[in-house]
Structure formats: structure tokens, C-alpha cells
Amino acid sequence: MVSPKIILVAASLLLGFGGVAAAHHSGAAYDTEHPRTMEGTVKTVNWTNPHITFVIEADAKDGAPAQTWVFEVSSPGVLTRSGWTKKSLQPGDHATFHYAPLRDGSSGGFLMRVTLPNGQELSFSLTPSDQ
Amino acid sequence: MNMAMTKSVTFCGVVALIAMVTLSPAGAAPSDFDGVWLPDVKDQHRQEKENPPPWKAEILAQVEHQIAEEKAGRPFLVLSHCLPHGMPTWMLINHNAFEWLTTPGRVTMLGEVDGNRMRRIYTDGRPHPDDPDPTLHGHSIGHWEGDVLVVDTTAIVPQAYIASSEAVGIPNDGDMHIVERLYLAKPNVLNDELEITAPKVLTAPWKTTRIFRRYPERHYEIIEGECQQEDLVPAKDAYGNDIFVSHPQRPDGSVSTAK
Lengths: 131, 259
Known about the structure:
Radius of gyration of chain B: 23 Å
Strand order of the largest sheet of chain A: 1-2-3-5-4
Order of helices and strands of chain B: HEHHHEEEEEEEEEEEE
Radius of gyration of chain A: 14 Å
Number of helices of chain B: 4
Number of strands of chain A: 6
Shape of chain B: globular
Structural class of chain A: mainly beta
Number of helices of chain A: 2
Strand content of chain B: 25-35%
Order of helices and strands of chain A: HEEEHEEE
Strand order of the largest sheet of chain B: 1-2-3-4-5-6-9-10-11
Helix content of chain B: 10-25%
Distance between the termini of chain B: 90 Å
Strand content of chain A: 25-35%
Shape of chain A: globular
Helix content of chain A: under 10%
Oligomer: heterodimer
Structural class of chain B: alpha+beta
Number of strands of chain B: 13
């Protein structure tokens, strides 16, 4: 399911963030200084250009209704070269999402890393590490 | 050792020496440039600070305003439409791969993410046209000087940005001329030495080298992606056919959580 070539480069992505975020726009909308974590279930995968987005239903807490979150990542090209496929994260998958939140406080952000239930990590980089 | 043997040993030594020199990385053939190249994004960021364009004073004021606006969370969108970056911005700030294709009389660069990023560099000896129609990528002619492809580009529309990032860029305002020297710094490292002359906005020609890397053992391909495809989502029409319908993202390009 997941290519063994998934590269864990969350640190380098965090450090190199400014302007790294997206093919087409500044990352100014995201607070990269204060990354957060949330858990939820994937509802929709928009494997599209220039940014793939994942629509997540957050785990319901304390009787409150589950919230819908939207995370964006980079382009299909960048994710494919980082070892992802369209099936790496699928509707119905429950996972932990590490993200830079939207500064305006709405339910979304720039997704940096995903931890799957089996412990496997999905992340991506604009620069493949030289092996 | 007799004379004949000494001569043949010497001859072999000379042949070996010539072989070593001609087979060295410096002996690159045009087709050695073919393949999928990824930009060095870390170096792009370094140059934002260390090698900014020599903006005219009144232009620098605009640039500084853009930088401030981005810090304030209101980034200017250099790429607010589906037009390609054009020249020189494609070479300067693009984060995605491009494919270099050599065919007789031409080098073609095919970009990723937006299918409309394409540079045609004519190497068939033609000159620039006398009365060109300006375009975003301009008219490029190239010739080989040894292992270096020297490319001369004119006829770029005044609206093409000279961009430092996706949030900082100024239109060239016309009369821009770009000369590039493209060569393999190492077998899988492509250097693009640009000299950008833009008399309306720069005080002097701006020199910057951009670095691209190839990873042949990873067999990277260009992945199709169309501009602002993310603003469309799959749906069905009244007949049940598969269509795309509009689902716009936020004005600054970030994800939309509105229903």
C-alpha cells in the first residue's frame, strides 16, 4: 500500500517552510511556528493540482459534533516523488495529522506529516534526500 | 624494452590520456541534458535574502510593501491566474519539476503542475524575428559553446513578473532581455546562469544562477496537473455524466473550509 520510499523529512520541511508550502501561493496563511496535532478520519481525497487536499472528520469529543477539517499539501508531482500514491491516504482511514494551523483559526491548515495507526509516517519534501 | 615497444607503450599512454580527457564529465553531449530536473528550492530561498534583484528605488518600495503584506498575513499573489510564470520567473521560483527534451533544431522545456509551462529554445540558427509577438516565455534562440547552451530570450510581455517568491514580484514593464548559460556542473546537476536586463525596473543587469538536479535512479516522471484544478471538484450533470464543478479555494489560495 505505502511505498517503502516514504521519506521522513518533517524537520527539513518545517525549517524550509517560508514559501515552500505551495506551488502557487505564499504560506503566510499558516502558522508554521506553532504546529499542532489532531486525530480524525479521512472523508475525501482531492488528488489535484496545484495542491492536494484532504477533508478530515475530526474525532468527536465530549458529545460535541464532529468537525470537518481541510488540510492542504503540495502537488501530485511532489507527493509522488516523495513516495505517495493516491491510495496512501484513503477515505475511511483514521490517522493523526501534524499540521501548521490556519492563522484565522478556522478548521484547516497545511499538513506536514501523517501518522497511520500502524505507526507508519507519511510526509513529503520538495527535495528528495540524497542517499 | 626495445624502441618499437617503447613507442607503442607511449602511443597507448597518449591514447589513454586523450580518452580520459574526452570522456570526462566536461564532454557533455546535448542529449546528456535530457530528463526530469527538480529545482534546488533551498538555494532559491537563500538567494531571496542574499541575491535580490537590483531594484530601482521606486520599485524597491513596492517590493518592501509586498514583503510587509506577506508578514501581515495578506500575501500578494504573483500567480493569481492560470497563466504560466513565464520568463524569468519559471526558472527563479518554481518548486516543481521540468523535463528537458532535445530534438533536432530545438530544446524544449516542459513544465509540471501547469500544462502551459513550456519553453521552446530554437537551436537551428534562426535569429529573433524583427517584429515579434511578445509572449510570457518570450522568443528564445540558443547555440552551443562547447558544453554550454547559450540562450538569448527577448519579446517577453511587459506583464511577466520578475519574482523572488510566490508573494513578491514586480512586472518587468517591458524591454526585458535574458541571456542564459546552461551547463552540467556535475553529471546530474544543471546550472542555469541567468543575466536579466530589465531597464524599466532594475538599475543594472541581474545575475543569478539557479540549480536543478536529476535523479535518474529514481525514474521520476512529470505528473500532469492543470492550473486551478483544485477549484473544481468531480460532480454529475443532470444526465449523470461525470463533470467538474466549481469549488473555489480562499482568495489567498489557501484551503477553503466554507461549505
